[in-house]
Amino acid sequence: MTREQLIGTIGKNGRRLNMMGSDLANFDFSGLDLTQADFRFSNLAKANFRGAILRGADLSFSNLEGASFAEADLFEANLNFCGLEDVDLTGANVEGATFNFSGRSKYRPPSVERAEPITLTTVLQKPGIGTLIGALLGALLIYGCNAVIFFTNLIATTEDPLMVGLYRFLIAQNMTDGAVVFLLTWALSGWLTRQFPAMWQRHIIVSIAVVCGFTVVNVGLYMLLGKPYIEALAKRPGGIEKTAAWYIYVMGDLLIANFFLYILQQGRQLTRKLSEQEFQLLNLEKLKTRAELDALQAKINPHFLYNSLNSIASLVHDDPDKAEEMTLLLSKLFRYTTGRNGELFATLADELEMVQTYLKVEQVRFGNRLTFSVEVSDPALNDLKLPQFLLQPIVENAIKHGISKRADMGRIDVRIYEKGGDLNLCVHDNGPSFPDDMDGGYGLRSIQDKLKLLYGDSARVELQNWPLKQVLLSIRMDKVRSEPTTVLSSEPN
Question: Which residues pair with 346 in a beta bridge?
């Protein structure tokens, strides 16, 4: 379709455009009024929608990779489940538009800023309060380091053994006190989070624990290290200078303990949020994969229906009996299609039954010009679960591009076998060889996309002209027997 033909179509349909399932890659829609247009399941890669009006348009499940929507009006447009890689939304009106489960574009609204988690690093980077906290921390750290250096120097230079013993006791006391405060806070942090929902309750419990810990540690160290030196110095006139009361030192421990508790709590909350987000992203990715598979399935079914109905139409006047036979066979096929109840997978036996029914439909049309065979090397393979409609599009292409090109006898052979740890599904026909530049058409691309979604690099599609002309699908057996058949086949919540 040309741009001029499209403009004429818009006018005839009162500006309502129905292009569902169309291949419109690189098409120029710039400046057109496409209000409420239906582009579902379409290939719109690198299409130009610059300045177009797409108010209320439905582009769900479409491939929009590389498309340009610069200055376009996308008010309340539906872009759910779309691929948006490299999409240009510069200056576009996206008010009310939905992008659920869509890929990422390079566009980001300028007013949206990414929220930063609250950590010590981010706090220190803030002007004002961050600068003040950083200055206080720096002062305390330097003061503590200098105190250690000061007392260490006194131990090395003082000749009085009683003073040396006192300095050693003070250093041991402060270092042990600091370690115990941190370890006690760290040990209680997780329990406090589970038992006390309010932050103030946690700080009170930690403060009580620190006071008790301070008392036990200092009394113990006094009895073990400090008592002989302090008692001896106390007997000297002016032997021990008056110092601050013990509760002043407890205040320092309480300050440090509560600071540690705050940092630990923030870290736990951040870790929990990240874990929850990762879990949600995993579920969203699963749902997105499910939606993409449903989209591929929805594309295949109409494609097959159109071809089958054309075959029936060609026989209605010339051979009504064959047309009736084809209609019944087609009914059987669509019972298989519509009766899947949301399942994305079916047994190999069911898939092959569907393929044979499809080939019988085409055999009615081609008569003696078409023969076929379906062969499974090991009957146990029939129970394997595979994505639905995996083979039918390939067989359909073999009919369309192979058998229909021959004036004499055409043959299609479907062979299933296991080799080298791979499940191989081959569709051979005796039609013309594949051209070197063949991309496989839509049917084969949909198969490639489906296998990539489910099996990643563990599946491949090959077009072969030698020794036989065939399409070969290979999937690792361990992948066929594993998670995709159980996880993605269930209905999403």
Answer: 386
pLDDT at 341: 58
H or E stretch covering 417: strand 410-419
Tell me the whole-structure pTM to 2 decimals. Answer: 0.43
pLDDT digits (tens, 9 = 90+) for 243-252: 767 778 788 8
> Mean pLDDT, the chain, as a whole number?
78
CA distances (Å), 121 to each of 126, 134, 159, 441, in order? 9, 10, 45, 54
3-state helix, strand, coil in the chain (%, to 5): 55, 10, 35
Dist. CA 213–CA 207, nearest whole Å: 10
CA distance to 99, 144, 168, 178, 421, per residue, from 174 (Å): 58, 10, 10, 6, 66
Contacts 24+ apart (CB under 8 A), 19-24: 21/299, 21/302, 21/303, 23/442
Contact (Cβ atoms closer than 8 angstroms) between residue 424 and residue 417: yes
DSSP type of residue 114: P
Residue of 206, 180, 314 whose CA lies nearest to 264: 206
pLDDT tens, position by position, 189-226: 878 877 887 888 888 998 999 889 888 888 888 888 88
CB count in 10 Å sphere of residue 8: 12
